[in-house]
Amino acid sequence: MSSTPSLHEKSAHVGTNDPERLEGIAEDFEVFKQTEDGVNFRTVGWPMATVIFLKTIFALGVLSIPAAMYTLGAVGGALSVIAWQALNTYTAVLQGDFRNNHPRCHSIADMAGVVGGPIMKELTGALFIVAYVLLTGSGIVGVSIGINALSHHAACSVWWSVIATVFVALAASVRKFHQIGWLTWIGFASIFTAVFILVIAVTTRDRPAAAPQTGDYEFGFYAMAYPGFAAGMVASCTIFVSGAGTSAMLPVISEMKNPRDYRKALFICMGIVTAAYLSFSLVVYRWCGKWVASPSLGSAGQTIKMVCYGIALPSLVVSACLYLHVAAKYIFVRVLRDSPHLQSNTMVHWATWLSCTFGLTIISFILAEAIPIFEYLLSLAGSICFAPLAISLPAWLWMHDHMHYRGGNVLKKVMFWMHALFIPLGLFVMVGGTYGVVVQIQEAEA
Question: Which InterPro entries did the record assign (predicted)?
Fold first, then answer.
């Protein structure tokens, strides 16, 4: 097990509970130092962190949840949105608290190393990279769909994916979260506006755009649906992953001016995300039924589809850019950590950073071409990667810092074992969700 001390352990060692002294102790452990020389990464305030979090979470999920609603039904889907986002918010709190108690942790992999040793650190790091490479791939698919919707040129879809990949790689190559902060404002505003236009547009139609325009047809709106296991798991994983990318927030904490402002940014972000997911997806499903498109921006006819994608295209690029940036930053810090090149404008610094961004871009492009079905990429990321990263591991982190609860009073014992139940829950979602995606892909290809 890693010997990295927590902030609490360090404060006990020096014999102080003074907030200012503790803040100084935490600063000694931070990955990035506040500096006037070289590259100062610690430039993100909590308002900008909120917007970065919003753009990281409120991105591809809003385009996929309406289709999941058809599988689960309006009531089942709504309850699923509320339950999953509440769980994602809570586990994000656990991750952030653990990170601030162990300031040397830059990523979820570092935190896994504290509780599980080197093997768990490497396994978690691999899952983290795979997760955000898959999300980058889904972002590339979304951008290529958007470009295709806007163009009447008969170019092959692969070429649109190439163009999307180039845009994403260039945007992700900016080194600091603060420098791409203005992109997140544009990205969030564009996707929110595009979805709002879609919501208004679908309510003005007599029947869904994809449905037969004459004669009787099956609308497909259900308060409660009863899907099979595979379809239900795919829909649940789609909703779960729409808010499960909270591990991407941890590298942002390392670049915040005051990491202790994390909870403030998190709660604002997840409150907005949950309310938007619930309202937008229910309205779109109510007016489109089984004829909802995936991604959902194509649900109101060709003209509105072009308008929505035209407005949302910057957001789709920014989303993929953020996912790629987070994965590349993890590798970058792992390679150069404790090296003078980490915060210096050297050839090694730049060569390492650009190798990380462009190398992962190529892998994301290959995955986007191998699994070009938008919702399956998201579900696969949710089941294989985010189930252990966003459900099981956060509970383990909490148990590590609260091991004394196991021998405490009844309430503390209940809290301890309730957190322990999160571990098998995450493993169940991982196995069941992966099985569901495989079955659904096989049925789609049949």
Answer: AA_transpt_TM
